[in-house]
């Protein structure tokens, strides 16, 4: 896991900036109208192409070589090179700013054009070698009141040694200097300092890629260049540290075999319940390794042997410099819910270096072909070390292609819809987290209070692991943590069970988990703003469903919820969801269909089973009308069961109306519990 791994018209969405302090309008070029040449280091991707000059600066205010800038094909060539760009609209030109990010000084002439195409020479300065790494070259035209919508720059590469690169071109209707600014995450800058995790975790070797368990009590990470590794000191192993009852991190422990072997080993993600981890590479029984992803499960005796997770068409062949090559490295994050993966990889539709892609779980062991996340996130430079937070929406990643402070900065972006290809504009996490060196591998637990990350700031040796307290603006959205045990209702004995959490409004399965008494409590972590149905099931028991309403919550919630399963046997009475019907209605709410489907499943598995359906209401209104409503409700439930193939002779019904309440009728919240249908197993 190397830290580095690891004549057409181009259009761009308009880039308009208003400086509110001065009423200044700044336009950045949004189309390429023509150019003399462009550097093409590969047959795929867009590094150094003419289109890289469009939009806001990607490199400035920092300087240096960048594939996110336009670079002519022949560095130090004797011929002049030129590029002409257009803008979203015409403005009264007072200033031109040209972001020369690498080897500045080659610009000899600059022309402006009005809507009719009339040309104005606004700068004629001899090209010359400058003793600076880069600059924002600003021109204040002498011509007055010219309305401009295009700019052309002419360069003389032979006058300045090395590749000459242009990051961006901006124009303004004001003389206030145009500046390149970093898009820092909104809200106040962090007031705390980044904190080195200390000698318990950091060594004289290399510590990178921290993965904090969702409960915040176990920190996994990758350690390299260390004599205590399973392989040689040059290989990488997975280590972990536990937080004790005094909130002190214990000395790091090597995870050992079978996860660590003689090759490079690294953890990429952990499940919401902390009982599944995902590791790089495919582990073969003979000890060899291949590119890919594997997962391991926690048992009472330790972690299982890593099992391959196949990603379809991962090793896509791509063409570069007229050669065919295959993908040889990647970085991944699997969502805490186990159904979405973000991958940093180089493919045929990559912008330049590695880009971020999304892949979806298709079966228990297979993932879809990676889908490009789009050019809001991805640039012609490197994007990697992704981490998808527990809100299933906030994505942290490192990038060399967005303006920042140094050799790779950390950013956040938020998913805007369910396509997974529409994201907010990446925000730099700011100068407390990002430095002039390399910063990467951001990771956040469920609480969202601290973030853990890797950095090149050498305190204990090589790369170290740090943490920093987050501001509300840089945290993921809060979640709810639901935990507990699953018990047999009659004996309180723990029962191994499968759990699913469904979103009530559409019955979509959001996440799954397993409760195993030998490995501790179950834990589900659910984003807020939804109503969920949690269902536990196991052979020989009727599934238990509990509704959890998080639709109005705005802060982190910890919910203790023990679930009780009732054995399937004659005489057993089982209460269905109290929200199966709206008030005064007999129509079964569509979101309740899965619960009724579980009755169908039980009656299919037990073909001799006969049941009694009993309908109940609250005490609002006339008694006879309530009895009639109760009768209508049980008939609707029976009708649904019949539609699924259950023989009507196996179903009896009884309507009680308000006669048998199980809760007070004084409030709507408690009355809701009385609006219910119960069924009793008469025969099995």
Give an overview of the whole structure.
With 684 residues, the chain is mainly β. The protein has four domains: 163 residues, Galactose-binding domain-like (Jelly Rolls, Sandwich), CATH 2.60.120.260; 271 residues, Tachylectin-2, Chain A, CATH 2.115.10; 90 residues, Immunoglobulin-like (Sandwich), CATH 2.60.40; 116 residues, OmpA-like domain (60s Ribosomal Protein L30, Chain: A, 2-Layer Sandwich), CATH 3.30.1330.60. Helices cover 6% and strands 40% of the residues. The strands form eleven sheets. Strands 17, 18, 19, 20, 21, 24, 25, 26, 27 and 28 form a ten-stranded mixed beta sheet that branches. It has a six-stranded antiparallel beta sheet with strand order 1-4-5-10-7-8, with no helix packed on it. Strands 2-3-11-6-9 form a five-stranded antiparallel beta sheet, with no helix packed on it. This is OmpA family protein.
What is the second-level CATH architecture of the largest domain? 5 Propeller
The structure class reads: mainly beta
The named CATH superfamily of the largest domain: Glycosyl hydrolase domain, family 43
- What is the approximate shape? elongated
Q: What is the tally of beta strands?
A: 49
CATH class category name of the largest domain = Mainly Beta
In the CATH hierarchy, the third-tier topology of the largest domain is known as: Tachylectin-2, Chain A
* Uncertain parts: 1-18
In terms of DSSP E residues, the strand content is: 35-45%
Gyration radius (Cα, Å) is 31 Å
Mean pLDDT: 90
Head-to-tail CA distance between termini: 58 Å
> Which percent range fits the helix content?
under 10%
Q: Supply the number of helical segments.
A: 3
How is the biggest beta sheet arranged?
Answer: 10 strands, mixed
Q: How many domains make up the coordinates? A: 4
Domain OmpA-like: 568-684
InterPro entries: Bact_OuterMem_StrucFunc, OmpA-like, OmpA-like_sf, WD40
Protein name: OmpA family protein
Pfam family, one: OmpA
């Amino acid at each position: 896991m190397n830290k580095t791994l690891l004549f057409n018209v181009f259009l761009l969405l308009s880039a308009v900036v208003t400086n509110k302090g001065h009423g200044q309008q700044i336009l950045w070029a949004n189309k390429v109208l023509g150019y003399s040449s462009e550097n093409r280091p590969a047959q795929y991707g867009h590094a150094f192409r003419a289109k890289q000059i469009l939009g806001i600066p990607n490199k400035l205010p920092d300087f240096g070589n960048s594939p996110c800038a336009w670079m002519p094909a022949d560095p130090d060539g004797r011929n002049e090179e030129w590029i002409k760009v257009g803008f979203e609209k015409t403005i009264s030109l007072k200033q031109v700013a040209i972001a020369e990010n690498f080897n500045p000084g080659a610009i000899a002439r600059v022309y402006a054009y009005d809507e009719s195409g009339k040309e104005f020479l606004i700068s004629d300065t001899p090209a010359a070698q400058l003793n600076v790494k880069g600059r924002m070259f600003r021109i204040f035209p002498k011509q007055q009141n010219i309305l401009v919508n295009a700019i052309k720059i002419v360069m003389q590469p032979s006058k300045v040694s090395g590749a000459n690169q242009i990051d961006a071109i901006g124009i303004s209707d004001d003389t206030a200097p145009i500046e390149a600014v970093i898009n820092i995450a909104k809200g106040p800058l962090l007031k705390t300092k980044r904190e080195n995790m200390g000698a318990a975790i950091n060594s004289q070797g290399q510590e990178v890629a921290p993965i904090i368990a969702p409960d915040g009590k176990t920190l996994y990470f990758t350690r390299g260049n260390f004599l205590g590794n399973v392989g040689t000191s040059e290989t990488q192993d997975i280590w972990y540290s536990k937080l004790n009852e005094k909130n002190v991190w214990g000395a790091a422990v090597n995870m050992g075999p079978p996860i660590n072997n003689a090759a490079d080993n690294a953890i990429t993600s952990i499940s919401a319940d902390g009982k599944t981890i995902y590791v790089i590479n495919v582990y073969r029984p003979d000890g060899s390794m291949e590119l890919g992803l594997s997962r391991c499960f926690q048992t009472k005796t330790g972690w299982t042997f890593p099992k391959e997770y196949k990603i379809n068409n991962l090793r896509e062949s791509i063409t570069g410099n007229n050669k065919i090559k295959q993908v040889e490295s990647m970085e991944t994050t699997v969502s805490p819910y186990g159904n979405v993966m973000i991958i940093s990889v180089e493919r045929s539709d990559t912008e330049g270096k590695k880009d971020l892609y999304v892949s979806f779980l298709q079966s228990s062991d297979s993932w879809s072909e990676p889908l490009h996340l789009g050019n809001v996130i991805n640039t012609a430079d490197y994007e990697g070390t992704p981490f998808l937070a527990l809100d299933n929406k906030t994505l942290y990643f490192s990038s060399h292609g967005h303006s920042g402070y140094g050799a790779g900065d950390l950013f956040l972006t938020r998913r805007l819809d369910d396509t997974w290809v529409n994201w907010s504009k990446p925000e730099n996490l700011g100068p407390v987290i990002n430095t002039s060196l390399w910063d990467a591998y951001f990771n956040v637990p469920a609480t969202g209070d601290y973030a853990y990350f890797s950095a090149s700031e050498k305190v204990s040796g090589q790369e170290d692991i740090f943490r920093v307290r987050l501001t509300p603006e840089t945290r993921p959205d809060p979640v709810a943590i639901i935990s507990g045990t699953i018990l047999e209702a009659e004996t309180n004995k723990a029962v191994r069970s499968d759990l699913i959490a469904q979103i009530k409004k559409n019955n979509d399965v959001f996440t799954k988990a397993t409760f195993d008494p030998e490995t501790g409590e179950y834990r589900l972590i659910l984003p807020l703003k939804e109503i969920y149905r949690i269902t536990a099931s196991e052979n020989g028991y009727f599934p238990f469903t509990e509704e959890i309403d998080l639709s109005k919550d705005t802060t982190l919630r910890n919910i203790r919820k023990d679930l009780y399963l009732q054995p399937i046997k004659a005489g057993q009475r089982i209460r269905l969801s109290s929200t199966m019907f709206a008030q005064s209605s007999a129509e079964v709410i569509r979101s309740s269909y899965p619960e009724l489907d579980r009755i169908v499943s039980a009656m299919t598995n037990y073909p001799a089973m006969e049941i009694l359906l009993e309908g109940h209401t609250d005490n609002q209104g006339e008694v006879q009308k309530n009895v009639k409503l109760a009768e209508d409700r049980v008939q609707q439930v029976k009708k649904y069961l019949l539609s699924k193939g259950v023989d009507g002779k196996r179903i009896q019904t009884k309507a009680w109306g308000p006669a048998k309440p199980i809760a007070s009728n004084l409030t709507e919240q408690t009355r809701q519990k009385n609006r219910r249908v119960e069924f009793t197993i008469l025969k099995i």
